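In this section we walk through a basic example: taking a raw amino acid sequence and producing a predicted 3D structure, encoded as discrete structure tokens. The instruction is simple. Fold the sequence below.
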Amino acid sequence: MTFTVIPAIDLRGGHVVRLKQGDYAQQTTYADDPRALAQRYADAGARWLHLVDLDGARSGTLDNLAVIEAIAGGGLLVQAGGGVRGEGDLRRLFDAGVTRVVVGSVAIRDPGRVAGWLRDYGAERLTLALDTRRADGRWTLPSAGWTETEAGTLDELAPWYAAQGARHLLCTDIDRDGMLAGFNLDLYRHLAGTVPSLAVQASGGVRSLEDIRAAREAGARGVILGRALLEGRFTVQEALAA
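The resulting token sequence is shown next.
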């Protein structure tokens, strides 16, 4: 089973930032040049890079497209999202060199349209971002940069997409995002059991190399690494070796 280590860069105003639990008021800025950071990750052996346009996630437009395009042209395989609302956005990201487009809010709000994209572009070109928060005993699905909560649940939507032929699912436990509290392993065990055909990417809370190993054992097919790398808790080389 292929397991992929994917460094992440969150973009806001063209800078590298991290938010705590998706809260735009709790931002830490790490670097001014995301292209240089992406190159360092590539030089360290990373094959994939995860890019998030945080401005776009909230505004619904691809605000950091120029930066994404510059990074995608640097040799890494890029999955990118934030602000994808229609097929035109999808095409702009593909034209910018993005290998897989991450669709979040539209995947929650308009599954029928995204199912059409899966058919038209192929399951390998899309990553569904069903980021979740536990509330009232359900895995709810916040959208629009996690500022709004939709009616559906993860347990309803993930199996539906699997039946539509989806391949890649990125799932973040929002309450752990940026908190360095470790992955929610129960969430990934649950997904591995209910939607085994989906290659699940674990995201939110990684703090150690042991967390990466544990996510793999829980059934995840990849990990997204953000704050832990930025703060030097381990290196890309160490993560790949783990």
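Looking at the output, two observations stand out. The radius of gyration is 16 Å. The first helix runs from residue 34 to 43. In the next section we compare this with other chains.
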